[in-house]
Write a structure and sequence with these properties.
Elements: E1 12-15, H1 48-60, E2 66-71, H2 81-94, E3 99-106, H3 113-121, E4 125-129, H4 134-140, H5 150-162, E5 166-173, H6 181-190, E6 195-200, H7 232-249, E7 255-256, H8 257-267, E8 283-286, E9 291-293, E10 304-307, H9 313-317, H10 320-331, H11 335-338, H12 343-346, E11 356-357, E12 363-365, H13 369-391, H14 399-402
Parallel strand pairs: 1-2, 1-8, 2-3, 3-4, 4-5, 5-6, 6-7
Antiparallel strand pairs: 8-9, 9-10, 11-12
Helix pairs in contact: 1-2, 7-13, 8-13
């Protein structure tokens, strides 16, 4: 088991300025129900006092010259623009010579021209949640009245493009759109999206006494899968279909986070996605009231590290509880994973999905293992070629010319 030394990586905290509040009610949202953790709190919004405390401490906790602030939700744009202008004022007040960068996640429905001017003028990166063409997106991404959201999202994207705002797409792959990988991929190419992140949705249902329904690892193995979850077979087919087009014509032009992470692991570099790293635990999340949790996907009472009013970020993120959380990923791998030739490529993926059993009946196997294994076996010759190009300081895009010479 590998233990990460304190301060070996940048301290990273994703901030929830409106908690779980959102103007949409997407069927598979894992965060909406987190509001139930704070039923006794009247307003789920971050105060300016807490904002200043966080900005100051977050910057002063860093060991790097560049500091990245990540604003997430819920729906971040439900806070007024003035809140984020205040955040920038505080960032400059406490920067101390450091380079400050900002990225913000949004469902895209509340984007306005004023927002776009601000985002462009201050060089913010925007992540837009969109699940592909209208039929795919509106299947699960609807508002609280059940009305579809695709049209408003596309209006927001057009405004981002109009004002030349940097943005990337963050798409959820579910039981529906996973069956149409090329329709999904072509849509993003058609709208000019050159930076694409997609995430498989895997959730289990386990009602809790406080009204929450989504399960976590400590709920055991017998929790039923949510209907919208992608299957391992679907996930493997989806990745392979998109990769086959990307590797023939899009390398170096369209950047797909999962493929980039796979190549990074192939050459021994940091993958850039926590789910594909050897350990985790370096990326925490802070709620609107200052509560800090181990990970965005582990906002459960069992994984609360503390509160910024009682403990410093350094104490929480480099403390024993978070270190133990981060090392579980490698330390609890089943034997099947340890003996897998592609362990280096996924490291067991996200612990939240490791509720299946191996062929020998050992617990702790990732539910999506079969799909990932098929994907890695399929892409291995291409990754080997691109690795060789990388090591010889040649463009990985050369793989597009060499495909005819690669036998799989």
């Amino acid at each position: 088991m590998t233990t990460i030394a304190p301060f070996a990586r940048p301290l990273y905290v994703m901030v929830k300025p409106v908690g779980a509040h959102c103007n949409l009610a997407c069927d598979y949202c894992y965060y909406l129900e987190k509001a139930k953790l704070y039923d006794d709190v009247p307003r789920h919004v971050m105060s300016e006092e807490l904002l200043e405390r966080f900005v100051r401490e977050y910057i002063q906790s860093q060991t790097m010259t560049s500091v990245m602030f990540t604003w997430h939700g819920g729906e971040t744009f439900m806070r007024p623009l003035s809140f984020f202008k205040k955040a920038m004022e505080l960032q400059q007040k406490y920067a101390g010579g450091r380079i400050i960068e900002n990225c913000i996640q949004t469902n895209g429905t509340l984007i306005t021209e004023d927002w776009c001017k601000f985002l462009h003028d201050n060089n913010w990166l925007v992540g837009v949640s969109i699940d592909g063409p209208q039929e795919f997106h509106d299947e699960y991404r609807r508002n609280k009245q059940g009305m579809p959201s695709f049209v408003r999202v596309m209006q927001g994207i057009k405004l981002l493009n109009k004002y030349d705002v940097q943005w990337n797409a963050m798409a959820v792959v579910n039981d529906f759109n996973a069956d149409y990988p090329l329709d999904f991929y072509h849509f993003f190419k058609e709208i000019g999206c050159h930076y694409l992140q997609f995430t498989p949705i895997v959730e289990r249902i386990m009602p809790h006494s406080d009204g929450r329904h989504l399960a976590h690892l400590q709920d055991g193995e017998d929790c039923p899968l949510a209907d919208f979850s992608v299957s391992p077979q679907q996930w493997g087919d989806f990745l392979i279909a998109i990769f086959d087009e990307w590797v023939k014509q899009d390398v170096g032009n369209y950047f797909i986070q999962l493929f980039d992470a796979t190549l990074a692991n192939w050459v021994g570099e940091q993958p850039g996605i926590c789910s594909m790293g050897r350990t985790c635990g370096h990326a925490a999340v802070m709620e609107f009231n200052g509560d800090v949790y181990s990970c965005d996907h582990f906002v459960f009472p069992e994984y609360k590290l503390g509160n910024i009013y009682q403990q410093t970020l350094v104490e929480m993120l480099y403390g024993k509880k978070q270190a133990a959380f981060g090392n579980i990923k490698e330390g609890q791998l089943p034997r099947q994973c340890k003996e897998c030739q592609y362990l280096f490529a996924c490291h067991g993926e996200c612990p939240k999905n490791r509720f299946a059993r191996t062929k020998d009946g050992e617990p702790g196997l990732n539910y999506l293992c079969e799909g990932y294994h098929r994907f890695f076996a399929h892409v291995a010759p291409y990754m080997d070629f691109m690795k060789d190009e990388f090591l010889h300081q040649r463009p990985a895009a050369n793989v597009m010319k060499a495909n005819i010479n690669i036998n799989i």
